[in-house]
């Protein structure tokens, strides 16, 4: 993984988009290789998280990473319900947080 990708992951709390990878000089073939090696984990189309961070994360932390990756792509939406609770670092009393919860604002 190149330094630009590492810097971007650090700046974005472990989340990076496909567009950001491309801007950092990482093509689709290299992305596939990074995913295969476990350096990156694809959490949704066009969104990746740091592989080491994902491996060390519990279910709640993985939900937060997925939430961060989704919210970066959405305009006029706010995180809600259990996703907001997890994002704020509050105690979550659930084994399965399910899908990322958002609501339209504005």
How would you describe this structure in keywords?
3-stranded antiparallel sheet; globular; 106 residues; 48% helix; single chain
Describe this structure in words.
This protein has 106 residues and is an alpha+beta fold. The protein has 6 helices and 5 strands; from the N terminus they run H-E-H-H-E-E-H-H-E-H-E. Strands 1-3-2 form a 3-stranded antiparallel sheet, with helices on both faces. A two-stranded antiparallel ribbon has the order 4-5. It is globular, with a radius of gyration of 14 Å. The relative contact order is 0.14.
Instruction: Give the SSE order as H and E letters.
Output: HEHHEEHHEHE
**Biggest β-sheet: count, sense, barrel?**
3 strands, antiparallel
Q: Helical residue percent? A: 40-55%
Strand element count: 5
Q: Characterize the overall form.
A: globular
- Ends apart, CA distance between termini: 39 Å
Measured by DSSP, the beta-strand proportion falls in 15-25%
Low-confidence stretches: none
């Amino acid at each position: 993984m190149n330094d630009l990708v590492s810097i971007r992951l650090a700046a974005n709390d472990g989340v990076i988009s496909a567009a950001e990878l491309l801007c950092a000089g990482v093509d689709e073939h290299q992305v596939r290789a990074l995913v295969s090696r476990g350096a990156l984990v694809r959490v949704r189309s066009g969104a990746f998280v740091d592989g080491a961070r994902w491996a060390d994360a519990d279910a709640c932390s993985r939900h937060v990473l997925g939430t961060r990756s989704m919210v970066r792509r959405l305009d006029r939406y706010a995180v809600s319900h259990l996703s907001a609770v997890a994002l704020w670092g509050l105690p979550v009393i659930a084994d399965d947080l399910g899908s990322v919860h958002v609501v339209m604002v504005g």
